[in-house]
Amino acid sequence: MLAVIFSALNANGQKPIFINEDSVLVGNSFHPGLTVTIPEVDFNKTLKNWIKEQENGTKSKVVTENGEMSIFGAIRKDISPNPINIYSTLLNQDTLQLLMVCIELRKEQYVEPSAGDIQMTAARNFLKDFAKSQYIDFIKDEVAGQEKILRELNNELNGLQKNESKTKKGAQSNKNVIRDEQDKLIVKNNELNQLSTEIINQNNLLISMEAGPGREAKAAQIKELDKRKSKLQKEIQSAENKISKSKSKIDQADRALPRNEDDQQKMNARIEEQEAVVRKYMDKLNTVRNY
User: Fold this and answer.
1) Where in the sequence is the domain holding 103, given as residue range(s)?
2) Residue 213 confidence (pLDDT)
3) Are 156 and 44 part of one and the same domain?
4) DSSP β-bridge partners for residue 65
5) Rounded to whole angstroms, how far apart are CA atoms 23 and 34?
6) Average pLDDT for residues 262-277, to the nearest whole number?
C-alpha cells in the first residue's frame, strides 16, 4: 500500500491530504483502488462536487445505491483514451472526508500498479486535484469570512474617526458661537447701559413736566424706550443661553474625544490582530495551493 502525502512542515493550520493505494469494496468484492482524505470540507458539498466531477464531459450519470456511487462510460482522457467506469464511496469522518475510488479501465481490469505507472500516476493526480480543489474552496471561504471580520473592524474604526472629526468640528463651531455671541454681548450691554441711562433721564424730565400734550408725548417716548430695553434684555439673555449651551457642548466634546481616542487605539489593535489572522489563513491557502 503506497501513501502519498501532500502537506508542509510548520503549516498554518492546514491538514495534509493523504492518497493511498488500497483495496476498495465494490458491492461484495474488493478491488484495487485509491483512497484520498479531504480535510475539513463539508460532506454534502463535497459529495455534490464529486458527482459533478465524474459526470463532467459525458452524458453518463452517477448512480447511487446504499451510499455507493457508480458511473459507466466516464470520460477521463488523462487516465485512459477510452471511457472508464468509476466506483466510489464518500465517508464522512467528522474532521475530513474519505473518498474511496475504484477505476475500471475495462471489464475486470482496474487501475493498479500493475496497470502501469502512467495510469496510476494519472489516477492519483485526478484524485489529488479534486481533493485539493475542494480543500482550497473551503479555505477560500475561511479567508472570506476572516476578511469580512476585518472589513467590519475597519468600518468601525472609520466610524470612530468620523465621529472624532465631527466632534472636533462641532467643538470648533461652538467656540466660534461663543466668540460671536460674546462680541454681540459687549455691544448689546453697552447699548443697554446707555438706554437705561436714557430712560432714567427721560423719566426725570417726565416728572418735571406739567400735564398736557407734551407730557403725553414724553410718556409715549419712554414707553418705546422701555420696549427697546425689554427687547435688548431678551437678546442678551438669548446670547448668554447660546454661550452656556455651546460651553456645555464643548465640555461634552472634551470628555468624548479622549474616549474616542482610546476606542481607536483598541480598534487598531484588534485590526492588527485580525490582519494577522487573515495572513494566517492566506498562508494556509497558499500552502495548500502548493500541495
Assistant:
1) 3-139
2) 84
3) no
4) 68
5) 7
6) 98
